[in-house]
## 1
Amino acid sequence: MEKPQYTAAHLKGMNRHVVYDFIRERGATSKAQIVKETGISPPTVIKIVSYLVERGLVVEAGEGAAGVGRRPQLLAINGPGRFSAVFALEGSFLSMGLVDISGRVLHRQKTRTAQDFGAFLAEVRDGLVSSLLHAAGADPARLIGVGVTLPGTYDPARRVLDYAPAIGVFGPVEIGPWMDGMTQKFGVPVYVENDTNAQCMGEHELCRARDLVYVSAGTGVGAGVMLDGRLRRGETNKCGEIGYNVFFEDYKRTARAAGCLEQRIGYHVLEQQFALDRFSRRSQIPPALLAQMAAQVTKPLALCIANLTHVLDCSTVVLGGELKPETEALVGPDALATLDRYNFNCGFWGSNGIAAEQGLTTPDIEEAQVKRISMRHTAKRFVISDASKFGMVAPVKFADFRDATIITAGEVPAKYQSMDNVITV
């Protein structure tokens, strides 16, 4: 096997990633701290920081504490400065939004889309990116990338979607020309990934487990696998296709059919079998029917996960997936009515923005309503957030700044360090 050839450009790119990730994880840090903890030389760190600042990815964030001598200049990720447009296709539904480089969701929406894959690509290129930017009131000049996730077998090296029956793809489709056209039109790089692989990488970024399996059960069934901190794709990019696990002797595989597990617990199967279209919301489904559905789903899914954890020797498993929004009641009137009936001794919330004047804020109005009512019914209220959220303001306020004790980590801006409801750990 031929060994890969590494050049100075590879090392430069790796060092940039190391420095960028270090700043992002710390919330705010100094050049001296980067040098000390990464081992990268001071001249290289200075060049990399200048590169990141020039491109609007990193900003100066005030002065840090110093025992002796001059106070160090702190650096932080320029969250609001740059953002990406993201499109997650799942069967006949499309989730899309804008995400800034700190991971904050600036805008999101869901819609039905054509199951014709070619029509979907044209829709993204000719209208959806522009309409998304317009709906969010975002400056197109600040767009730095477009990401698309697909429910199928995707080869990033060939830029080919090989197989995706959920969206009507039963043979290889070259995506490279479309990606090049998108880059030419919007002037930014375009990234395409399998949906569960993308979700797996996101979960790994949060928990940093060495090995991790992300299992998604929604419209389809799939998994993403991280081993030794690296995404495992497999020789033919089919690693994680657990929907094809076989549990029943009478299963017969056909070219256009879903896999054995997905034929039993995929959402479209449950929707038809239990006639779920009769109910506009999950709260309307009779408990006995929910119990039947749970019994059908949980045993084969549990067997699948048990086999995965033993074969891969992996102890970290994350369950995810999403049902149709029409039948979900985690937000909206049903959730609000339920919360309004209870009182709580203690509660914990997250917040996208924390500011003394504007309060605690989130980009989603329905989420804000849930947080507002739940906080009103809670005696002891805590907000858990990293230091980068201080000074940030999202569109919708759900509480005043002093309505909760804020537990944080990292370099808290000087303005907030002496406030009695801010605890740094």
Note: The first helix runs from residue 8 to 26.
## 2
Amino acid sequence: MYNLLSGKTIIVTLFHVIYLQLLFKRFYSGSSSDDHCTLFADRNLINRRNVREDPHSAYRPDRDFLILEVKARILAAAFHVLGLKSRDEKPLHYPFPEDLPKWNKLQRLQFLHKAAGMIVDEIVIDEAMMNGSLQELVSYEERREIQKHLDVNEDGRFPCRFPGCNTSFKYNGKSRRRHELSHDPPVVIEEMRTTTSPTTTDQATKSSDDVFNYNAALLSEGLFFMNFLDAVSEGDGKRIMRQYKYLMLLCKADDPHSTKYALESLYQLLLVNGLSQKESEKFVWNRTVNNHGGLGNNIPHDLEVEHSNNFNKQGYCNIGANLSEKAVSRICYAEKPVRTISGKMDKLLQRFIRSGKHIQRFPVVDLDVLLKKLNESEVFKYQKGRSYRHFKGFERDALVNLDMSKIYSWLNDHKKKYSLGVKAR
């Protein structure tokens, strides 16, 4: 975070592991082997034994497995929306023009984007769900503003609501409420409540489709995760900050397990808009590093720090019994010049150095197996009454249990604390 006392910008760790953990917590369960087309069932189908329930213990296998699952569902969604029977056939619902081979690269790209837009509009985005969340938040703010203006008197103060009491208050806060409770009988005020967190009834469960809701949610959330990884690879700081807004809500929905991560996401958004323009630019764009040049070769700063630690540990081992704090500091300060000199010497001597990058072929066979299973189950064809045993009554919206009224109060509370220089521990 940004230290307001020292004025130094500290590297912020990206939350890709945290978001992957939230995804596995929602979509992965060792008790869901009977629920076909779920993560654990697919893991057994293609025999991915290195996948674990906790991404902290197996981040790379879990990440690669999730990306494979998302790509399989992208193809399954394309088969359903575009009317494809196999990869070799032409789509029935989106026919190819006869002069398509004569089109230039830009025209073909626009044609592909239009097809992708059809898939996103029908499967990925649920307009009713998004509009409902926005309308709920807006209506709550409107009711707060209306109540705020109705409660004030001619002097702009909040009067005591006990009949006959002439006491007034500058703010509608604890002092006003404490005074009203001191009366006999105390003033009873109905709290504003929003219509969030609808309970799932038996009738709603029978009319829903757990298979469709699960796979549509996995596709949309998985695409968000892949977009996060792509933003890091491209070094797109603004895109990363936009995704932190949604990640903040996801962490808040996982309350109380991810409260600190939600706060950290909020503080980053506050710093972007609260710092000077120069410091804000540093904070947004100083999140990744590119050591080799080229597009899409950026890595997170925390991974670069791990590489630096591994390099410096070689020097620590060579010191042996003479290891001291002064020697460690000298090695750390000399890291960059030593790397530069060593690199030039290796290049001059034409020394062969093996790359530490693990190059793996894309698992096409596993993708075909997953795609066949998804198409046979028609996961993206909404059918009322289909249900899972473990994921019964699965909600497509990850924020369905999020109380927007509490989010509104939570944001205002921490904005006030931030303006006073108070940070929650």
Note: The longest strand covers residues 2-3.
## 3
Amino acid sequence: MQTMSVSNSGHHRHPTRRRALWRPTALAACTLGLLVACGGGDGDGDGDGGGGGGSSAPATYTTATSSVLAGSDTYGYTNHADPLQARFTRIWGLTGDGAGNLYVADFDSGAMRYVGSNGAVGTYAGAEPPGGGAYFDNPNPLVARFYGPAQLVRASNGTLYVADSNNHCIRKIAPGANATTAGAVTTVAGVCGTTTGGFNNGAAPTALFRLPFGLALDEAQQVLYVADTENNRIRKIKLGSLAAADAVTTLAGNEAYGSADGQGSAARFYHPQGLARDAQGNLFVADGFNSTIRKVDANGQVSTLAGTPQQRGYANGAGSGAKFYGPAGVAADANGSIYVADRGNNVIRMLRPNGSGGYTASTLAGAQPTNGIDPAPPGTATGSAAATQFKEVTALWLDGKGMLYTGERDGSRIVKLTLQR
């Protein structure tokens, strides 16, 4: 067993606020509000679509049961053979390999953790505490350093891409000798370690990002999509031509925050966070501070699927009749359903096509809020989906086999939902 305490000093904390969304302050403070990691399109052939996922089930899921897979309601950093004795700090990203191994972005510790198929929890990459809070590429993954790792997405060859948010860049972890051993850590795009980040398209080594959080990978594994959160943009990275002048481009959005549907730079987001991609090339975006779910098609056309911009709350229903409270992670399955980590409401929501060209929101899991704005009291109960009590659920990953894995920011647990029709 390995146990280490983790100090919050030197790590950027998210204020624990449930009645009001965090609003951006000076970037030097790097306070990351309702942000997450959970992307899509890993191309590993299991039909999951990666961090954002895509179930290969022939029918739509409607309910679930739940159980705690790893962690407990205790903030910390502990590796352990018993997953329920392991400790995490704040979980912002989840993905897996389809063979029972999960990879976890442990935000405050600056480490990538794993939950092996045998249940054991260990460190996959990143210097263990107090090793986080810096930038360092290294052939030895346990010497490399991350600063606020957020969303993860996995390629079919085992490469993990990481949104290294507080370093303002995109990193990758090469596969190692087995599923729980990593290879070298290198930088894909961005100038890592800058104080405030920035914005610049162009060749990957000179491109600039500002608090990137969401990631999704296309089916061919040639394009990596990034939710560039503080820049309010969705960016594209051409993985096969990183030195080219058009290696990093903007698909949609512009620096001005707000909410506007439209083409490319005419669209506006307000801190886009989680990303997921479907087989048709559509990206789904958890537009965190707008409390809406957006879609970006392959041509950069942006539309709003559910929620009303900057009107947070809790309501199921169609289109703008639905309300969310700082949605974080998203996942998309092969049946057209979209799963949402509704962080502020402590529930998992589900959007399903309603036959009228739109989507209708329902609650899949989580004790539902008792009114339109305050979440139900968080706790640790699991069993039926309706009785599950999350503590700021953030990360989602679909395994393509009827399991939806969730990660919590404040509960520091991984909860497994067994989906049912």
Note: The first strand starts at residue 2 and ends at 4.
